[in-house]
Amino acid sequence: MKKSIFLLMSATVVSASLFGSSCSRAAASDPGRAVPGRPAMVSAPVMMAMLHIPALGAKSEIAVYEGRTEESLDLGSWHYPGTASAGEPGNFVALGHRTTRPAPFHDLHLLKRGDRIEAADSAGTYTYKVVEIRVTSSSDRRIVDPGSFGTLRGSSGRYLTLVTCHPLGSSAKRLVVVAEQAVPVSGKR
After folding, report:
1. Euclidean distance between the first and final Cα of the chain, in Å?
2. ∠ at Cα 59 (8, 20), nearest 5°?
3. At 52, which helix (H) or strand (E)?
4. Confidence of residue 13 (pLDDT cuts 50, 70, 90)
5. Which residues contact 150 (CB under 8 A, 6 or more apart)?
6. Distance between CA atoms of residues 23 and 46, nearest Å
7. Residue 110 has pLDDT above 90, yes or no
C-alpha cells in the first residue's frame, strides 16, 4: 500500500469527464467554510490522502481529493473544505458516491463499530476506529462536528467522517460514518 500511495500522491491528477448526479450536485452546492491558506476550490483535483478500509474488501482503497468539484467525485471522494486533514486535530471529512462511478462508498453501510480505517498522506499513516454510524437528513451540517452526535465528548479530538447518499440510488438522506484516531500519530503532525 505504501508504494501505491507514494506513486499516486506524487502524480499529477488529470481531470476526468464530468458525470452528474443529484447526490453529487447536492453535496457540491454547500461551499463549506473557507480556511486561510487552504482554497475551497481548485482548478484540478489534487489527491491529499488515501483511505484503506479493510472491511470493504476489493473496494478498500479510496482516494480523497482536495477540490470540491464533480471531477473529484468522479475520481474518488472529496475533502470537505475547512475540515482537518488526515492526522490533524479536528474532523477530517470526506464525501463520496455510492452508486455512480467510481462509487467508492457503495459498501459503506457494511462498516461496523470497531472497524479500522487508515488514512495516509505525505506526512504519515493514521489509524482510526469506527465509533458511530448513523443516517441523517441531507441538510444536516452536524457532520463536520462529530461531537454533536453525543458519543464522542472527551475523546482524542482527531476524527475521520465519511459521508455518502442514502439509501442506495437516492440523495434523500446521508449515511455518516464517524471514526476516531485509535493509535498515536505516526506522522509529523
Report:
1. 21
2. 80
3. strand 46-52
4. very low
5. none
6. 21
7. yes
The single-letter DSSP state of residue 105 is T
Residue 100: phi and psi, rounded to 5, are: -105, 155
Amino acid at 160: L
Helical (H) or strand (E) element with 140: none
DSSP notation for 149-184: GSS-TTS-SEEEEEEEEESTT--SEEEEEEEEE-S-
In the chain, the percentage of residues whose pLDDT exceeds 70 is 68
Q: 46: helix, coil or strand?
A: strand
Cβ 59 vs Cβ 106: under 8 Å? yes
d(CA 163, CA 102): 15
Length of the chain: 189
User: Residue 58, class by beta-carbon neighbours within 10 Å (0-12 exposed, 13-18 middle, 19+ buried)?
Assistant: exposed
- Measured CA to CA, the distance from residue 189 to residue 171 in angstroms comes to 35
Phi, psi of 149 (to 5 degrees): -80, -10
C-alpha–C-alpha distance, residues 77 and 69, integer Å: 10
* Residue in this structure with the C-alpha cell 443516517, named with its chain if needed: 135
| pLDDT digit string, tens, across residues 29-70 | 333 333 334 445 556 789 999 999 999 988 799 999 997 777
